[in-house]
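Milestone 3.1: sequence recovery, worked example.
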């Protein structure tokens, strides 16, 4: 696979998203443990929103990979079927 391969790029992006989701989750958990003050609550809400957005993007990329895999399977089935019909 080349560096410009969409699958490779998708995997790299998913890895980055996963790393950032984990980092934000750690900060959210730490802030909960320490207790939220009135000053830190807006920051905590922004972190939660950012985590949700990153998770949505991660799921979208996962779904794209699933679609690519299904398309490849369909192509193989079509090829096998056309060989049988010949």
């Amino acid at each position: 696979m080349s560096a410009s391969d969409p699958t490779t790029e998708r995997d790299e992006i998913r890895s980055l998203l996963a790393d950032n989701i984990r980092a934000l989750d750690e900060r959210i958990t730490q802030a909960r443990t320490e207790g939220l003050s009135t000053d830190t609550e807006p920051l905590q809400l922004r972190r939660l929103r950012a985590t949700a957005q990153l998770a949505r993007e991660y799921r979208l990329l996962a779904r794209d990979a699933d679609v690519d895999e299904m398309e490849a399977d369909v192509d193989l089935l079509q090829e096998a079927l056309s060989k049988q019909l010949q």
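The CA atoms of residues 7 and 65 lie 7 Å apart. Helices lie at 6-34, 41-85.
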